[in-house]
Amino acid sequence: MVATLLxxxxxxxxxxEIGFKNKGWAIxxxxxxxxxxxxxxxxxxxxxxxxxxxxxxxxxxxxxxGLASIRINTASSNNIDIxxxxxxxxxxxxxxxxxxxxxxxxEHQQI
Length: 111
Prior knowledge:
By secondary structure, the chain is α+β, with helices and mostly antiparallel strands. The protein has a single domain, classed as Roll (PH-domain like). Helices cover 43% and strands 34% of the residues. It contains three helices and six strands, in the order αββββαββα. The protein has helices spanning 2-21, 60-65, 89-110, and strands spanning 24-27, 31-36, 42-47, 51-57, 67-74, 82-88.
């Protein structure tokens, strides 16, 4: 019983560790790319002109360690929204500012 429990805990820890290492994001000229997954990998590419809202999220534990997340909501009918977690607070703030600039630039081009 104890051996089974230890095995399950070890597998869970290994899966979380591997899953964390297989996450990534990239800012490109016209879009943001987010990849996650271990066994089943998914990649989301969101053009900046589809982004409706971007928010910075930080809970009490994250604030204690200087961490934050970015949530990006899209205008897509597929509800393809992404959340980039575990960023340093400063990085998250810079990323949000950059995305907001891209959104505003796109809105001014349409006028």
